[in-house]
Amino acid sequence: MENSTKPIVSVITPTYNAARFITETIFSVKEQTFTNWEMIIVDDSSLDNTVEIVKKEMEKDSRIKLIELKKNSGPANARNRAITAASGNYLAFLDSDDLWLPQKLERQLMFMDQKNLAFSYSAYRIMTEDGERTDVVFHVPGKIDYKSLLKNTIIGTLTVMLDRRKVGKVQMPIHRDCSEDYGLWLSILSKGIQAYGMNEELAIYRKREKSLSSNKLKSAQKTWNTYRKVEKITIPSSIWYLANYSLHALKKHSKT
After folding, report:
1. Once rounded to an integer, what is the mean pLDDT over residues 180-187?
2. Which residue from 125, 142, 238, 239 has the least number of CB within 10 angstroms?
3. CA–CA separation, 224 and 105 (whole Å)
4. Strands 37-43 and 133-138
């Protein structure tokens, strides 16, 4: 499978002012035991030296590619630009401050190939902003469908892998006040596709104190907007789903 000249996995990495972390993130991809990949980094008009760091890494490894956006337009647009440029059969998502364990791609590709899957995700560990790995690991269910995902926050973007031949053309919804990655997973599952989980730690999520995901109120608002603006769900149903989503989120984040 790795003999093909075409990269099998396209790694989707949006970045903005990530000079502190991007080298380590790139290194975690370069350390993969599966080597037939391309890493498409889309810089969302960074104000620091992120671009210079990425360009140096490109000189060392031709599998790393860079797209520079002239205007800051948010992570969803950056991811969509990377998805459009991707040439692999599979899409894998990794933000510019997170990490993969070395066997991530190999193990997940094997899992998907053996079970003929369109969408998979895995367990992942939490680390601090300074890179200290904690004891917190988010374990995942073996399967999740559209209605289950409406009530849950279990899929970590850094663990997702999609088979483009099975899910078709995908793009994240462009809504600044919505949860764009969550909206994409819902749009895929709404077609009757199910997502399958590997309850195996394959990635490490950097919990940054000032990140949007660390603000629970804003996160809940974005989830609500995703129900209403993207999924067009009625108000009563949205209230029901958000209550369940919030309960799962509280249980999940109480560990951290």
Report:
1. 95
2. 142
3. 32
4. unpaired
Q: What is the pLDDT of residues 97-127, one digit of tens each?
A: 999 999 999 999 999 999 999 999 999 999 9
Single pTM value for the model? 0.91
Place of tokens 């004891």: 135
Pick the CATH number of 9-209 from 3.30.1510.10, 3.90.550.10, 3.20.20.100, 3.30.300.30: 3.90.550.10
**Residue (of 144, 220, 218, 216) closest to 185 by Cα position:** 144
- Closest to 206 (Cα-Cα) out of 122, 154, 131: 131
Contact 158, 81 (CB under 8 A): no
Residue 107, classified by CB atoms within 10 Å of its CB into exposed (0-12), middle (13-18) or buried (19+), is middle
Q: Where are the domains of the chain?
A: 9-209
Amino acid identity, residue 9? V
Burial of 245 (0-12, 13-18, 19+ CB in 10 A): buried
Residue 67: its pLDDT value, please? 98
Cα–Cα distance measured from residue 64 to residue 232, given in angstroms and rounded to the nearest whole number: 38
Tokens 């949205």 -> residue: 238
pLDDT in tens, 123-142: 999 999 999 999 999 999 99
Q: Give the count of beta carbons closer than 10 Å to the beta carbon of residue 187.
A: 18
